[in-house]
Amino acid sequence: MSEDSAQPSVRPILDLVVLDCPDALELARFYAEVLGWELESDSDAEWATLEPPGGGVSSERPDGRTTLAFQRIEDWVAPTWPGGSHPQQFHLDFSVPVISEAEPPVLAAGATVHEHQPSESGSFKVYLDPVGHPFCLCGRP
Questions:
Q1: In the predicted model, is pLDDT for residue 47 greater than 50?
Q2: How many angstroms separate the CA atoms of 121 and 105, rounded?
Q3: What are the pLDDT digits (tens) for 24-45?
Q4: DSSP labels, 49-67
Q5: Is 27 in a helix, a strand, or coil?
Q6: What pLDDT was estimated at residue 11?
Q7: What's the rounded Cα separation, in Å, for the pair 91 and 127?
Q8: Distances from the Cα of 21 to the Cαs of 12, 66, 104, 139, in angstroms?
Q9: d(Cα 90, Cα 52) in Å, to the nearest integer?
Q10: Is residue 49 classed exposed, middle or buried when 0-12, 13-18 and 19+ CB atoms within 10 A define those classes?
Q11: Which pLDDT value is given to residue 12?
């Protein structure tokens, strides 16, 4: 690595994590309910973005807070995790004080408990969002 490239003058900031889905607005509403975040006003079925507490669009997030966005994909195929032809693709981990206390509102929002639970210690639990993306509630030690 050259001396010039060792320390870039401008570092990227992770701005958005974008989830593909069949209806961006519908999935954004699910995650908005789970996280208690707001939907950006120009969100629609094609593209929807969540607004984390205290921050709007990326130019207003100078502290680097990452948010979630959702984009409609015409030929959407749900993940088949833990295997299959369309495995996990990605997953989100949400830190919670106590999994059993965080679970009821997540289920009420539309999540389901995944049949495969790989945590032997119970330190995390796997769920599926309404379109099949796996995500975890992770208990804080």
A1: yes
A2: 23
A3: 999 999 999 999 999 999 999 9
A4: EEE-TT--SGGG-TT---E
A5: helix
A6: 66
A7: 10
A8: 26, 19, 24, 27
A9: 21
A10: buried
A11: 66
Q: Which amino acid is at 131?
A: V
d(CA 24, CA 21) in angstroms, rounded, equals: 6
**What average pLDDT does the segment 9-16 reach?**
74
- C-alpha separations of 87 from 20, 125, 128, 136 in Å: 14, 18, 13, 16
Q: Which of 109, 117, 26, 6 is nearest to 71 (CA)?
A: 26
Q: How many residues does the chain have?
A: 141
The helix/strand/coil state of 114 is coil
What mean pLDDT is predicted for residues 122-138?
94
Chain position carrying tokens 């995650």: 31
How many C-beta atoms surround the C-beta of residue 7 within 10 A? Answer: 8
Say whether 23 sits in a helix, a strand or coil.
Answer: coil
Does the predicted TM-score (pTM) go above 0.90?
no
Gap between the Cα atoms of 118 and 25, Å rounded: 31
For residue 126, give the amino acid letter.
V
Mean pLDDT of 80-100: 86
* All structural domains of the chain: 3-72 (3.10.180.10), 92-139 (3.10.180.10)
